[in-house]
Amino acid sequence: MDTEMYPLDAAAVYVCAHEFLEVASLSSTQRVVIRTTGGNMSEPSIEPASTDSAARPSDTWVRAPEARQRLIDTAIELLRTHPFPEVTTRLIAEKSGVNRPAILRQFGSKEALFDEVAAELSRRFAARAPQSTGLGMLTDPDMGLRARLVAWLVGEGADPDHFRLDEDGPSAIALRARLAEHGPVSEKTARIFHRMAVLLAEGFLVFNDTHPTRPPEDLVAMMELFFDIRGNLSETEKRLGWNEPDENDSGSTGTDQVAGDAPSGD
User: Fold this and answer.
1) Cα separation of 131 and 126, whole Å?
2) What is the mean pLDDT of residues 8-12?
3) Measured distance CA(203)–CA(96) in Å, rounded
4) If both were cysteines, with which of 3, 37, 75, 93 could 100 make a disulfide (CB 3.0 to 4.6 Å apart)?
5) What's the pLDDT score for residue 118?
């Protein structure tokens, strides 16, 4: 008979197959099995140690890519509802159903996992940026969580370079397209206006709650002022002398140039 079963303990399967799957902690009624048929080794699987139906395993295993995304998604949901310092690897593992060692294998540390969480939040916002309204950046839950998380991580000593926004990303393209709707402006004007918009939005998202409570109409008035400034950029840049390309520019951001350009939405 050329089919054999090799029971392995949890530690052994981490060594032989940790790149293939992430194993939840095995119960006393479970074993990891690899079968060989004709000299070919099967993929590892978890099976009951007993055929008794009462001893069926309750834990599950998932492939490494699924485990990685599950950890990211779980961390995001916990960060929405818990103070950041309380979101521990133990809590993330418990809520995700993936074991704690998987966090180290997939990310190297909790800090690196949070770095990836920030990147995932940016991707989610960027996917919605082309359809976002003027208040989109200030009300988007993913953008808000990212801004607060990054501020906390940098305060805890994280390298700010890890969180630099992509100045050629989808959300930036969306902003450049919005600017073009109000007439062409130089690349310098578009670049500076974008950076100003992002800094204002991030400051609002992080520190708004520390300021005196204002009526909702104030926020609407702020956005009206912002949109008025945006709508008059062509005239503003002429007064400032920014309408002539400088050494960092290649021309204006008219409609033709916008399609393949830079970062975040409004």
Assistant:
1) 10
2) 42
3) 32
4) 93
5) 94
Tens digits of residue pLDDT in 97-135: 998 999 999 999 999 999 999 999 988 988 887 776 666
φ, ψ for residue 213, nearest 5 deg: -65, 130
Domains of the chain by residue range? 3-62, 109-258
What type of residue sits at position 128?
R
Phi, psi of 63 (to 5 degrees): -70, 155
Cα dihedral 175, 179, 185, 188 sign: negative
Q: CA–CA distance from 260 to each of 116, 167, 176, 195 (Å)?
A: 25, 11, 10, 18
State how far the alpha carbon of 180 is from the alpha carbons of 104, 164, 165, 184, 266, in Å.
Answer: 46, 25, 21, 5, 13
Cα gap 204→135, rounded to integer Å = 12
Whole-angstrom distance, CA of residue 5 vs CA of residue 45: 11
Q: How confident is the model at residue 261 (pLDDT cuts 50, 70, 90)?
A: very low
Rounded CA separation 226/194 (Å): 12
Location of structure tokens 């974008």: 194
Residue-wise pLDDT tens digits, 135-181:
666 788 999 999 999 999 999 999 999 888 777 766 677 777 777 77
Can you spell out the DSSP letters for 177-217? HHHHTT---BHHHHHHHHHHHHHHHHHHHHHGGGSPP--HH
